[in-house]
Design goal:
The chain has five domains: 175 residues, 3-Layer(aba) Sandwich (Rossmann fold); 85 residues, Elongation Factor Tu (Ef-tu), domain 3, CATH 2.40.30; 74 residues, Elongation Factor G (Translational Gtpase), domain 3 (Alpha-Beta Plaits, 2-Layer Sandwich), CATH 3.30.70.870; 107 residues, Alpha-Beta Plaits (2-Layer Sandwich), CATH 3.30.70.240; 109 residues, Alpha-Beta Plaits, CATH 3.30.70.2570. The chain is 27% helix and 34% strand. The protein has 14 helices and 31 strands. Helix 7 packs across helix 8. The radius of gyration is 28 Å and the shape is globular.
Length: 595
């Protein structure tokens, strides 16, 4: 056990976590030159294309320090705020963390929130200054920021470059010297924490675990404490570049177990594995359920694919424990699921993965957040979907979730960022200068306002320099109204939104204008209306495609033309009664990008 070191890498987006991980694997000889490629741990095509890490990736390395062999278990984590649940799970399986800061950009919002996660779990923090080979690096200023943040000595900060490989040896030495070995009792009953799981179509579900106490052997009969199901450990092993089987695994080891589990509900991330004949007293604590921030309906384009979509969602949930879903139905779209996501990027990634990995084409409705509704009878209802809102006459108050947002930016962009936040109903809490150039702003603002396009606008206003992080704080009463979209007098429930009273008129108007461009013309007029309750606040009409029925009347009496036009009018009227309007997928997406 003294020779094991478990550590993860945490940082803001694009500070070079995956590149440093590549260099560590290369230096320890874990990966041969033939297998070497950039972001070697990012095994999804999506991760490579976008240059972001979506999943945490665990891998084991061997390192010889002063003649002693050490086993290092490394977990590379995502940096985007939408995947912070992956980071919190990785931190639970480690004793130390490399905090990587970009020497050209300094400390950013996600650096701070990931650092706090690590400190709460009592991890040993090793600060590393990356990208030292860049001409624009500012080592002295950034070191001052790190010293202010962590309170370490200046000479404790390691200088490195993931690109050139500078300083990698000193990082490995520091890990061995500073990170404590895992604590635990090898003779105690088995207690292992599941921190991730993947689905393999041949072997069933593979769970990744870290042994806290005890020993696990191949062929042991084990049970999962929360689900109370029993299995045989058919294969156990460590996570190298590929899975390597082992006969026995000891306290402190990180590895995988295959026991032929087929149903995805039987594996829960955060569960405890123990022996059937000598179980442990209690499950491992400290794993909170994830709270989704954004809700949206996901529906199959073809209603017959509903079961396949359920199957695909269950597989995805294994791979991404922060996805939550429950069945729901919509008048406009049929059967589907109401899904909870951690943010808009998370939602986009899930949609993309459903398409790529499972070949599922889906329609996603307008994202919204969850509201608390107090009825006139005094009942408290949680509403995830505008369609589930009780009638106006039964409503007493609607409370919406507020967040505390932390924005770190260059001081020259303060004015425009404040304007953006105040437009989004934000209230400035405090303003704190980290250096003369960089400032940290704290805002209280409604979550529903940042769901749509806040992040994109923030990045464009600050030319990419502002970094943003948030956490939910409380619920507050708000003047919210339900905005319905009607096509020919029929409500399209998938386009309903709950919106603040002051913004409802302009939003409804823009929505009608956008839908007019997107809905294809029919043989009859289509009325597009935005309504609050029974009051129509905006209307647009998609004109009918008409055949010129009077073309054959050249000259002659006007009544002949009128007779033909009246006949056509009757036909159009009947068509309008039986015809239904298909809303294209583009229309649902356009609502997100109204500006």
């Amino acid at each position: 056990m003294d020779k094991i070191r478990n550590f993860c890498i945490i940082a803001h987006i694009d500070h070079g976590k995956s590149t440093i991980a590549d260099r560590l694997l290369e230096k320890t000889g874990t990966i041969s030159e033939r297998d070497l490629q950039a972001q070697v741990l990012d095994d999804m095509d999506l991760e490579r294309e976008r240059g972001i890490t979506i999943k945490s990736h665990a891998i084991q390395m061997n390192y010889n320090h002063q003649g002693t062999d050490y086993t290092l278990n490394l977990i590379d984590t995502p940096g985007h705020v939408d995947f912070s649940y992956e980071v919190s799970r990785s931190i639970a399986a480690c004793e130390g963390a490399l905090l990587i800061v970009d020497a050209t950009q300094g400390i950013q919002a996600q650096t701070i929130s990931n650092l706090y996660l690590a400190i709460e779990n009592d991890l040993e923090i090793i600060p590393v200054l990356n990208k030292m080979d860049m001409p624009s690096a500012m080592p002295d200023e950034v070191k001052d920021q790190i010293v202010d943040l962590i309170g370490c000595e200046r000479d404790e900060i390691l200088e490195a470059s993931g690109k050139t490989g500078m300083g990698i040896e000193s990082i490995l030495e520091r890990i061995v010297e500073v990170v404590p070995p895992p604590k635990g009792d090898p003779k105690a009953p088995l207690q292992a924490l599941i921190f991730d799981s993947v689905f393999n179509s041949y072997r069933g579900i593979i769970a990744y675990f870290k042994i806290i106490n005890g020993t696990l052997r191949k062929g042991d009969k084990v049970k999962f404490v929360n689900t109370d199901k029993e299995y045989f450990a058919e294969e156990i092993g460590v996570l190298r570049l590929k899975q390597e089987p082992r006969e026995v695994m000891h306290t402190g080891d990180v590895g995988y177990i295959i026991s032929g589990i087929k149903a995805s509900k039987e594996v829960k991330v955060g569960d405890t594995i123990t022996h059937v004949d000598k179980p442990c007293d209690a499950a491992i604590e400290g794993f909170e359920e994830v709270k989704p921030m954004v809700f949206a309906g996901v529906y199959p384009i073809d209603a017959d694919d509903y079961e396949e979509l359920r199957f695909a969602m269950e597989k995805l949930q294994l791979n991404d424990a922060s996805l939550t879903f429950e069945p729901e139905s919509s008048v406009a779209l049929g059967f589907g699921f109401r899904c909870g996501f951690l943010g808009l990027l998370h939602m986009e990634i899930i949609q993309e993965r459903l398409d790529r990995e499972f070949d599922m084409n889906v329609i996603t409705t307008v994202p919204n957040v969850s509201y608390k509704v107090i009825t006139t009878k005094g009942e408290l209802i949680e509403v995830h979907n505008p369609a589930g809102l009780p009638d106006v006459k039964y409503l007493k108050t609607i409370e919406e979730p507020y967040i505390t947002a932390q924005i770190i930016t260059k001081s020259e962009y303060i004015g425009s960022i404040m304007t953006l936040c105040l437009d989004k109903r934000g209230e400035l809490q405090k303003q704190h200068y980290l250096t003369s150039e960089r400032v940290e702003l704290s805002f209280e603002m409604p979550l529903s306002e940042i769901v749509f396009d806040f992040y994109d606008k923030l990045k464009s206003i600050s030319k990419g320099y502002a970094s943003f992080d948030y956490h939910q704080s409380e619920y507050r009463p708000a003047k919210l109204v339900k905005l319905d979209i009607l096509l020919n007098g029929e409500k399209v429930d998938a386009l309903s939104t709950l919106i603040h009273q002051d913004n409802a008129y302009s939003f409804g108007k823009r929505m009608c204008e956008k839908l007019k461009e997107l809905i294809p013309r029919q043989q009859f007029d289509i009325a597009i209306q935005a309504a609050i309750g029974a009051k129509i606040i905006s209307r647009q009409t998609v004109k009918a495609v008409r055949k010129d029925v009077t073309a054959k009347c050249y000259g002659g009496d006007i009544t002949r033309k009128r007779k033909l036009l009246e006949k056509q009018k009757k036909g159009k009227k009947r068509m309008k009664q039986v015809g239904n309007v298909e809303v294209p997928q583009k229309a649902f997406l356009a609502v997100l990008k109204l500006d």
